[in-house]
Amino acid sequence: MFKRQGPVAWNEMSFRLSKSTLVLLAFGSVYLFWGSTYGAIHVAGEHLPVPVVSATRSLISATLIGLICLLSGKSLRVPKGEGWKLVVVGLLFMSCNNMLLTWGEKMVPSGFASLIVSTMPIMIALIEMVLPGGDALNKRGWAGTILGTLGIGVLVWPSLHVAHGGAGVDGSRTMLAVWVLLGAALAFAVGSVLSRRFHFTADTFVATGWQIGAAGIFNATFAAASGGWHRAVWTWPGFGSIVYLSVFGSLFGLVAFTYLLQNVAVTKVSTYAFVNPVIAVLLGVLLLKERLVKTEIAGMAVIVCAVAMVVYSRVDRGKREIVGTAGEAVE
């Protein structure tokens, strides 16, 4: 599924840096860039309509990936019969998931949102379990699933208490955000499962360009139909956040993740699934002045442990069991 040759940027850098240094840089990039995407999405969503954020980010990312493919001599063609499959997966990843995530982050802090979305590996495990030919959950996987459900309950308990205790506006808004974010995670999980079962043979970068490009066209059309472009008021924080998401979140993060899959043990690469939410929470506190109450901190600990249990219950079944292909991991 993954091509043996590394991405251009890492190949060129490898002539000057040792492999151990490159691995450290790649881990740092994945942890920091993907962990920080939640904060950047939150800022972008505060300044621009949701469809505009998703459309602009996708179009910039697709253009950059397309240029890299062309400059490195890669054809943008994909094998016959894979085009429509890439489009479907791309719409789930970068349209459904991305727009729901951005909408959800307009209602709750970015760190809170990252914890809800981090349950996505649990959803993948459950979906795979019920599909023909899927893998059954082992004891550790079931324990992680139950623990993750408990963690979500602990995380949202303050909002449930507020919603049913009389001051219902903030509590109800938070609960709406939780359902929206769970929908975002579900869209990503379904896209991940489909991506695995489609068995794409196209080059990782090319396939990702198709996915993000198709989503960009859809998102731009949706933004136009909903009046998003007309209502957009461009500010430096909003535009800067989108550029950051496009360049660092999508492009650099993808390059680093692909390099790690090709050069590091899968058990180490899989740590991003539960490290990134912690990074997102910490950056939200430090940069966006977000605050979590004690029960939410407890919920974070429970969810992170649960995701780790589910990931490691499946990680010995091959690289595809982390999250799928490198293109799937682009938030």
Task: Walk me through the structure.
The chain has one domain. It is about 75% helix and about 0% strand. The chain is globular. It contains 14 helices and no strands. The N terminus is likely disordered. The relative contact order is 0.22. The longest helix has about 30 residues. It is mainly alpha-helical and about 325 residues long. Helix 4 runs antiparallel to helix 8 and helix 6 packs across helix 8.
Which helices and strands, and how do they pair?
Elements: H1 8-13, H2 19-47, H3 50-71, H4 83-105, H5 110-117, H6 120-130, H7 139-163, H8 168-198, H9 204-225, H10 228-231, H11 236-263, H12 266-269, H13 272-287, H14 294-314
Helix pairs in contact: 2-4, 2-5, 2-11, 2-13, 3-4, 3-9, 3-11, 4-8, 4-9, 5-13, 6-8, 6-14, 7-8, 7-14, 13-14
Binned, the helix content reads: over 70%
**Uncertain residue ranges:** 1-6, 163-167, 319-327
Provide the residue-averaged pLDDT.
83
| SSE string, helices as H and strands as E | HHHHHHHHHHHHHH
Count of beta strands:
0
